[in-house]
Design brief:
The complex is a heterodimer of chains A (about 350) and B (about 180). The longest helix of chain A is centred in the middle third of the chain and has 40 residues. Chain A has a domain of about 110 residues. Helices cover about 50% and strands about 10% of the residues of chain A. With about 180 residues, chain B is mainly alpha-helical. Classes of the chains: A alpha+beta (about 350), B mainly alpha (about 180). Chains A and B meet through helix 1, helix 4, helix 7, helix 8 and helix 9 of A and helix 1, helix 2, helix 5, helix 6 and helix 7 of B.
């Protein structure tokens, strides 16, 4: 399933990006070959031989809205610089100006590292302090196509940064857990939680340390200790993997642990949400606990029922008897999608 | 609710130091060479982290592309008529779609909704409840299974998504029931 979702995300981003770009080209959203009429105001008068001078660019709202066929309203004036070279005149809008759409997008796509939106000045006849002229921006095409490419590389970077941030906490917890294991502390925890967790993780032997680490992981989740929950969850997975007869296939117990983690039972709301919501969070605690509790029950039930489906039973790396021909055809679509079907093989 | 929250938060404050100090202390009592064992265990940290990288890169770059493509707007438009039939406000759809994919992205959705509708609105309460009651399923899958090099996740994705879906739908009705 992950294969399909993963491929789907990539393919659909291409499809949607193409669709959006085609629509924008069809609508001529960025008016690529036209020039926007503006008024230039020189506070100190126009200097014909100055290479750079400051200028105020005034855009009339009604002209702007008609030109781009939009409801967005530009500000009364934008500070900028007029750059004159032999090749012509260029207007640069100061970085950080709050531009309306679609100018903001044009800046995003065409601006260099200085963040200044550049435009070629046309129809400029200097006379006096305020001059009518028009500006043509660099053509903008395939915004979304560029964006998805950029996003792919940015997020690959993000992934590595996230992991680097995880190394310290991971090492700390793996070290602490090693002490706990050697000193028999994990064994004590196992005995405490066994009655509750054993039914959920039937593949784990009675005194296996996995149950202890799972208990720690789930408690860390409940208390909202994010930097403890993830390393503990990873360690719990490692313990479960020791019981796995295959190298690369998840067991029922692993899926159960994962499902319980994604349901994220928390008695306190996540720090990030508290930061966003402020005091308003207090009245939401009750609703969050109800919802998350129910979703935990659903997660457990779903993991249990799904593991009984034929297609998933057939791929169970730890199943006792290897019977049936479909062992190597887990994606046989004919007999799936019925969680209530009685376990027929084995 | 506030007292409950402060009790749990108080516990959270003391649990970590208790473990960080308690585990080695108990180890000493049991005559375990605590420093050596700690280092031995911690050694694994780097290796496991590096092992996760390819999995997380695979998941995150696909999600990043999907977000950047503008697919969300299309989906929201497509789902709007269906969802208003069952009394789900269409404004919270992006949350439902993006929550299992990215944590920071869904936090951004909550912030956007607050800016548009205000903290007190039902829509923000629903979105915040959605955020608080589920996890970033695909991130968890990448990290947990990446750490042990498991690629065949079997029913992990459907189970996680079923739970997420339940939470999303429940959040709408529970919040409407409590505050509506």
């Amino acid at each position: 399933m992950l294969n399909y979702i993963w491929a789907g995300l990539i393919v659909f981003s291409l499809v949607f990006a193409l669709a959006t770009d085609t629509r924008e080209i069809a609508q001529d959203r960025y008016r690529n070959d036209a020039a926007l009429p503006v008024e230039l105001h020189f506070p100190d008068g126009y200097a014909a031989d100055a290479r750079r001078q400051s200028v105020e660019v005034r855009i009339r709202p009604e002209v702007y809205q008609a030109f781009y066929d939009t409801d967005a309203t530009p500000e009364r004036a934008y500070d900028g610089t007029l750059v004159q070279t032999q090749d012509g005149r260029q207007v640069r809008f100061d970085a950080g100006a709050s531009l309306p759409e679609p100018m903001a997008t044009i800046r995003e796509v065409t601006a260099g590292s200085d963040g200044e939106l550049r435009a070629v000045l046309q129809d400029f006849v200097p006379n006096g302090r305020t001059v009518a002229a028009s500006v043509a921006f660099e053509p903008v095409r395939f915004v979304k196509m560029t964006a998805i490419t950029q996003a792919a590389f940015d997020f690959a970077d993000t992934a590595v940064n996230i992991i680097i941030g995880l190394i310290g906490a991971l090492a700390l917890w793996l070290g602490l857990l090693r002490i706990a294991e050697k000193s028999g502390l994990v064994g004590i925890i196992v005995r405490l939680v066994r009655p509750v967790l054993r039914p959920l993780f039937p593949g784990v032997p009675k005194d296996h340390p996995a149950l202890g680490v799972i208990a720690l992981n789930l408690s860390a989740n409940m208390l909202g200790l994010g930097n403890a929950a993830t390393p503990l969850g990873i360690k719990a997975m490692e313990e479960l993997h020791k019981l796995n007869e295959s190298e690369d296939t998840a067991t029922d117990d692993m899926v159960m642990l994962l499902a319980m983690n994604t349901a994220s039972v928390q008695l306190v709301p996540p720090v990030l949400l508290v930061a966003i919501m402020g005091l308003q969070i207090n009245e939401l605690i009750f609703s969050i606990i109800i919802v998350t509790g129910c979703s935990l029950l659903v997660a457990i039930t779903a993991a249990k029922l799904l593991s009984k489906m034929r297609r998933y039973r057939a791929t169970d790396p730890n199943r006792k008897t290897v019977v049936g021909l479909e062992e190597n055809h887990p994606s046989d679509a004919a007999d799936v999608d019925d969680p209530d079907a009685p376990p027929s093989n084995t | 609710m506030e007292t409950f929250r402060s009790i749990v938060e108080l516990m959270a404050v003391f649990v970590l130091p208790a473990i960080i100090v308690g585990f080695p202390l108990y180890g000493l009592y049991k005559k375990v060479p605590v420093y050596e064992e700690f280092v031995e265990g911690a050694k694994e940290g780097f290796k496991v982290a590096v092992q996760i990288i390819p999995y997380l890169v695979a998941i995150l770059f696909a999600i990043g592309m999907f977000r950047a493509s503008g697919a969300m707007e299309f989906l929201v438009e497509g789902l709007r008529p269906v969802l208003s039939l069952v009394n789900i406000p269409p404004e919270v759809i992006p949350m439902g779609i993006i929550r299992p994919l990215t944590g920071s992205g869904s936090a951004g959705v909550v912030v956007d909704l607050i800016n548009t509708y205000g903290e007190d609105s039902l829509i923000v309460k629903i979105a915040a409840t959605m955020f608080g009651s589920t996890e970033t399923t695909f991130y968890v899958i990448a990290v947990y299974f990446g750490a042990i090099n498991v690629q065949k996740t079997r029913h992990a994705v459907p189970a996680g998504l079923i739970a997420d879906f339940t939470a999303m739908v429940l959040a709408v009705y529970v919040v409407q029931l409590l505050f509506g």
